[in-house]
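Page 47, continued from p. 46.
Same chain as before, 382 aa.
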Amino acid sequence: MMESFVTKDGKKLRRGYTTGSCAAAAAKAAAIMLLEHRCLENIHLLTPRGIGLDLKVLDVTAGDEYVSCGIEKDSGDDPDVTNGIVVYTRVEKTDTPHSIEIDGGEGVGRVTRPGLDQPAGNAAINSGPRKMIRDELLQVCEDNGYRGGLRVTVSVPSGAEIAKKTFNPRLGIVGGISILGTTGIVEPMSDEAVVETIKAELSVRAAAGKKYVLFTPGNYGADFVRDELNIDPGTAVTTSNFIGDAFLLAAEAGFEGAVLVGHIGKVVKLAGGMFNTHSRYGDCRAEIFAAHAGASGASEETVKRLMNSAMTDDMLSILDEAGLREKVMSSITEKIGQQLSALSARYSWKLRTGVIAFSKVYGTLGMTGGADKLLDDVRKEI
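Result:
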């Protein structure tokens, strides 16, 4: 078990290590056993992050020209579906001098679309883990005076089943999981991992020639897109709380337009300039509703009731009673549009942006200027 910790939101959380670290460690152990003709029980790996790992070597099998072994994945306190899997590598000798060949076997996905870290046809072993494996094996070869080549096959017997719980099917990665990890270390509840997933999905769509992208923050948005807009939610990119990052990444990927369809409880925060909508960064929903209601002619009593409300559906109900729901939502969505324009100007992007707000109780509540046209553009590309 890895004993490295980080504190987030006042909680002490344990770090883990990536599938890439598992593959590199297993490859290093197998290469040492192959070239030095000895068995290892543990292997040390220094990750690109600079954190050292001492890992138990599992399930060793050997022949005259190959050795295979596994390393168990430990995700620490990160809720990762790959936690506890065993990543295996088979290392065998080749006649090509000083070469390291890397491929995927059972349970490692295969890339079928352009736009990802690896070209179509390659095993879904990202460039970070490939470099880790190559560097470790070249060092083992040098240490042992071995001038031939090595072929590495990475496999995860449970990978095909686990992949169904990941974004791989949406990204066009078939047959298994991806071997990932830039730093070699899993940071608990990593924001970076979510943003990288958004970036990967956008890259695949851009490579397929798409010019417009549909965003939804999560399940509520996906359900609304399916049930009310009759659009396959699988065509949408999930932003989670990283709405500002998603728009920025869409602009960087060269999209012409992006429209977000989101529940009012999340997207109302955009009117306050909060483009990461996680509650850890604040909750300005009641204040925004109250301010726009006051500017729209609401009574002092209505404003106070809004300020004392915890749920946006309750706020909408209060506005309904005052006959102000449409006016206030028009004001809020106009402000969201202004905030998007300010964000666009800040980063000098040319992306057309739009937001459509809805409630499970009230349906579509409003949209920024041009959002309906962007939604039509999205439909045309489906």
